[in-house]
Design goal:
Blueprint (H helix, E strand, L loop, with lengths): L1 E5 L6 H13 L4 E7 L2 H11 L4 E3 L3 H9 L2 E4 L15 E4 L19 H18 L1 E5 L2 H10 L7 E3 L18 H5 L8 E6 L10 H5 L3 H11 L1 E5 L9 H9 L6 E3 L15 E4 L4 H8 L4 E4 L3 H8 L12 E3 L2 H10 L8 H9 L6 H10 L9 E6 L6 E3 L4 H14 L6 H24 L1 H4 L8 H12 L3 H17 L1 E3 L1 H12 L3 E6 L5 H11 L8 E3 H4 L7 H9 L4 E8 L2 H10 L3 E4 L7 H8 L6 H27 L1
Helix pairs in contact: 15-16, 15-19, 15-26, 16-18, 18-19, 19-21, 25-26
């Protein structure tokens, strides 16, 4: 007997349909268990349906089952999997819908969902590549999923979506349509399903935009004796206008807000007309036998621009086109929705692998499937400043002190205020520019936060009415000082090149406003080999490590194919806490710093002696640190 476990985020989808099918027809050959995400859901399902083989994630029973599972059936790439799940268990990803939208690694990196895609692939890339069997329903959909997922072609399994098949003849069902109707009448002339997808840019207000006048709609439905089922995407159920309308029309005989307690797929055979937009449910309805559609797309141009569909929407869907709510009401008033004309083309394009015996055939193929596993490299990323290189005067402010001295010795006639307060001025202006970036996200229509050095000096020029020559001197002297004061951190550089020798890939990642050519010169100065290591610079990308978006940018920018990602740096937040949230392993070392005496020595020095004070304090800090290291080595011996 083989152990097949099933689960997704709710009692729905292909896993549920296949679980019910196998529980009925494969009871002699397979132990089938439904694994709910929560104990509450498991208890509710057991009580309602009388199915014994239901438990929940984290339970002792589930842990024991996962440790010996042959197959785990899901419908998505999960962010986390049970620790007890063996690396030999087959994860059968039945997915949750065909369609025209990009998925997983194919999504636009600027969409909100991209963060989840990034996180789950850092945590589970090796599992997705070596342990997943991915269900595809046609040649074109297989090509689509090969582009947008990391599952290799050898692990694609051709088949059908169980949820579109097993409920057709009513031999498998967990409820009757009458259970949903409750006190509603049961002699409607037709049943209409309205099933809009979510909008990535907003939740609030979408339902009101799509259904601004339910009263007018209800009048039409009453006249034609039609039931109008509203089944929105789960994310839209939190829309205040949706909740208000649901309450207002809870006693309507013609408008039914669908209770997600019931799986809508089980009553697809009852649907006469479907009103759809961009959701994959259009194809599921088509596959389940629905033939009359209205494509209600009042925001098509905006949606298409955001989602960048893989094919032309108009060509690869079918049904009456309606672009306004008034148009929808008028279309329903006419009550003459014809059957679509391109059913065969669309079914072949999206479900071309369909055969009568494909569910049984699919089960046998999964049972006998063997993986062609791939050995993966590791990705190691290094922070730059205070990890691979450091300043010989320790602090960034020491560079400003160097510039201050040079400005005093120049013949450029700087205002006395600038010469005496340059360190404070330079530091404050940088913070002001950063603050401006944080406060102008809406005006700039951008979520980028990192600044460039030019922005700092442009602000200085504006604030203090300096000449171009004066500003250029300050800027060029600062760049000169950064290169002049750089020195290597030998231990970390040796680690970096040892990882390359082991065959791993290495990248440099830095939150830094300095131009890339300057950082390249600094790296080449300490070790010429570093000039060939790829560098991701926040000043170039616009995003920082500290927000997590620089790491996410790297993921989408490279062809990520690694067993794990390891990052090294000195900042507990930007190099530690943040990357760990995405599944990146981290090694954070202590930051070199002055003790209070050394800081006091610097702070008490005059403006003209500030740079020399930084030099002397750093020598004290280096000597003190060397003594500590020496004492530690003696203790180890």
């Amino acid at each position: 007997m083989k152990y097949w476990l099933f689960g997704t985020y709710a009692w729905q989808g292909n896993p549920k349909a296949l679980f019910l099918y196998m529980s009925k027809y494969h009871i002699e050959t397979h132990h089938c268990w439904w694994i709910s995400d929560t104990e509450k859901e498991a208890l509710t399902l057991k009580e309602k349906y009388g199915i014994d083989n239901i438990t929940f994630l984290g339970s002792k029973e589930a842990k024991a089952l996962f440790s010996k599972a042959d197959v785990y059936v899901t419908e998505n790439c999960r962010e986390s999997y049970p620790l007890e799940l063996s690396s030999e268990t087959k994860i059968f990803n039945t997915w949750h819908g065909v369609g025209l939208k990009h998925v997983e690694i194919g999504v636009d990196k600027n969409l909100l969902v991209a963060t989840s895609v990034f996180r789950k692939h850092i945590k589970g890339f090796e599992r997705f590549v070596n342990q997943v069997i991915f269900l595809t329903t046609s040649e074109k959909m297989q090509e689509h999923f090969l582009r947008d997922t990391v599952v290799p072609e050898a692990h694609m399994l051709q088949g059908v979506y169980p949820r579109n098949i097993v409920y057709k003849n009513n031999s498998i069902a967990t409820y009757q349509f009458e259970d949903v109707l409750g006190g509603l009448k049961d002699d409607y002339n037709s049943v209409i399903l309205f099933a809009p997808t979510h909008r990535t840019h907003s939740i609030e207000g979408v339902f009101q935009f799509l259904m601004p006048n339910l009263s007018a709609l209800e009048n039409v439905l009453r006249f034609h004796n039609q039931l109008f089922i509203i089944k929105v995407h789960p994310s839209m159920t939190k829309d205040e206008q949706f909740l208000k309308a649901k309450k207002q029309y809870k006693n309507s005989q013609y408008i039914l807000f669908w209770d997600d307690y019931f799986d809508i797929y089980e009553i697809f055979s009852k649907i006469d007309i479907a009103i759809v937009d961009y959701s994959s449910i259009f194809y599921d309805l088509l596959d389940a036998g629905v033939e009359r559609f209205i494509r209600y797309i009042p925001d098509y141009h905006e949606y298409n621009q955001q989602m960048n569909m893989i094919e032309d929407y108009y060509q690869y869907t079918d049904g009456v086109i309606v672009e306004s709510f008034d148009g929808l009401v008028k279309t329903l008033e006419k009550n003459k929705i014809e059957k679509i004309s391109r059913k065969d083309f669309l079914l072949n394009y999206f479900f071309g692998y369909k055969k009568d015996d494909y569910i049984q055939d699919m089960i046998e193929k999964v049972d006998n499937f063997t993986f062609d596993k791939k050995e993966l490299k590791e990705l190691h990323t290094f922070d730059v400043f205070d990890t691979l290189i450091r300043r010989s005067t320790l602090k960034p402010l020491s560079i400003f002190a160097y510039v201050q001295n040079k400005a005093k010795k120049s013949q450029l006639d700087y205002p006395e205020y600038i010469l005496e307060n340059w360190i404070v001025i330079r530091n404050k202006v940088e913070h002001d520019v950063r603050d401006m970036m944080r406060k102008t996200l809406f005006e700039r229509q951008s979520d980028t936060l990192e600044i460039e050095l030019d922005a700092v000096f442009n602000r200085i020029s504006e604030n203090f009415a300096l000449t171009k020559e004066q500003v250029d001197f300050l800027r060029e002297t600062e760049l000169e000082a950064e290169i002049l004061h750089v020195e290597p951190i030998i231990e970390k550089i040796e680690l970096l090149f040892s990882l390359i020798e082991q065959g791993h890939d290495v990248l440099l990642v830095s939150d830094m406003y300095l131009p890339e050519f300057v950082i390249r010169q600094m790296l080449s100065k300490v070790d010429v080999r570093l000039k060939d290591v790829p560098l991701y610079l926040s000043g170039n990308v616009g995003h920082q490590k500290s927000s997590g978006k620089l790491y996410q940018h790297i993921f989408f920018d490279i062809d990520y194919q690694y067993a794990k990602w390891v990052h090294y740096g000195d900042n507990k937040h930007a190099d530690g806490t943040i990357p760990r949230q995405y599944g990146i392993q981290t090694f954070v070392h202590d930051v070199e710093d002055f003790i209070s005496f050394e800081s006091g020595f610097i702070n008490s020095s005059s403006a003209s002696m500030k740079y020399i004070a930084y030099q002397l304090a750093t020598k004290m800090q280096r000597y003190r640190t060397s003594l500590v290291h020496c004492m530690n080595n003696v203790e180890l011996e």
